Each structure stands twice: as C-alpha cells, then as structure tokens.
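DM between two lab members

TW: hey, do you still have the Flavodoxin-like fold domain-containing protein entry open?
JB: yeah, one sec
JB: this one, 228 aa:
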Amino acid sequence: MHVLLVTAHPEPTSFTAALTATAADALREAGHTVEVSDLYGEGFDPVAGRHDFVETAEPARFHYQTEQGHAHATGTFAPDIAREQERFLRADLVVWLYPIWWGNVPAIVKGWFDRVLAFGFAYADGKRFDTGFFPQKKGLLCLTTGGTRERFSRDGVYGELDQVLWPVQRLVIEYLGMQAQEPFVAYAAPRVDQATRENYLAAGRDRILAVAGPAPATASLEAEASPQ
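TW: and the structure you got?
JB:
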C-alpha cells in the first residue's frame, strides 16, 4: 500500500511530528511505501486565490470553483497544488495528522482542503459521497487535543468528538467517496507524562498499521513466478 501522511504542526518536536515520524518508519518497515506532505515544513500556502492558477478562464471576474474546473481540464494548477494532487492520487491511504484547534483543523489544513481538493479533480456534479471519485482510497485522521477525553464526551463541555469531527469525516473524507476510518485521538497530549506519550505513539502507530493492513508480498510473488 502507498500511504500519504499529510502532517501539520509548526513545532518539529511536537507529538504530531513524533507520530508522523513513528508512523512513517513503521509503515516502511512493514513493507509499505510512504510520502510525507509536511505542510509547515514545506511552507504550504493555505490562502486560495488567483495565484492557484497558471492561467484563468475568466480574467474579468474571478470565480474560484470555475477556475478550479478549468485548471483541472487544462492542467494549469499552480505547481504546489499540482504536487499535492499528484501525491494524493498516488496514495491508497491518506492520513491527516494535526492538532484540533478551536474545535477544527488548523488553518493550514483547511487551506490544503480548499486548494488541493479542487472541483473537477476531487469532486464534481454527481460525484460525491457514494458516487465520489475515490472509493478505493482510505482516509484516516490522527489527532491531538488539548482537552481531556471527558471534555469530548456527551456530558463534556466540548460535546462528543464525532460532532467535532463531522466537518472533516463526513464533509471531506466521505464527501470524496473515500473509506472513512475511525480516527485515532491522543487526548490532552500537551499535558501527559512521558509514559503516556509513549503509549500514545505506540497506539497511533498500531492504528495506522492496522488500517494499512499487510503489505503485498510483491517480491516473493515475483520470485515464485520467475523461471527457475
């Protein structure tokens, strides 16, 4: 399986960064191939605009969705968008790793959704949810929170986590026709001790490996099929 890790945290020593590195190493050791899209590390621009396109269909009046459709049809997305779209297309499993901020994704992740998952490329009229473009792809959220598990509960101050994650689970991953996986969440990650941090890393690693499944035994199959 080819896995794309889309990771977003401004601090290289964060739990998100550690989980990304741990997952990448474990996936490769298990025989999978991995790409990492480090949004902060690569300086991804989250702000949508005319700069998203090498040319425009309607120079007089800018309409973003129209321009996305035109760029998809003509291959005229800006280089950073084209790069991320190619990464996305190559992936069998896409894992987004980020902290929950203000009950939602960090702005840089929202910008990735806005700019990369473009009209024409990621969805179109009649190509959403069960009829979406990507039914063979899996999508997994690996998240950290500042609040405890109790706060993200029915009686907690933030409400159940399913409600918090609905805009991404339902309106991004499932919207694209992908197979939405049960998220992994490291609760109160900034305030746990080292032992709990290590347990979280191990649990996150195991969750990603479980979703990826066993790597195909390509090499051994090729060896069996070759003349002796």
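TW: got it. The chain has one domain: 2-212. Residues 219-228 have pLDDT under 50 and may be disordered.
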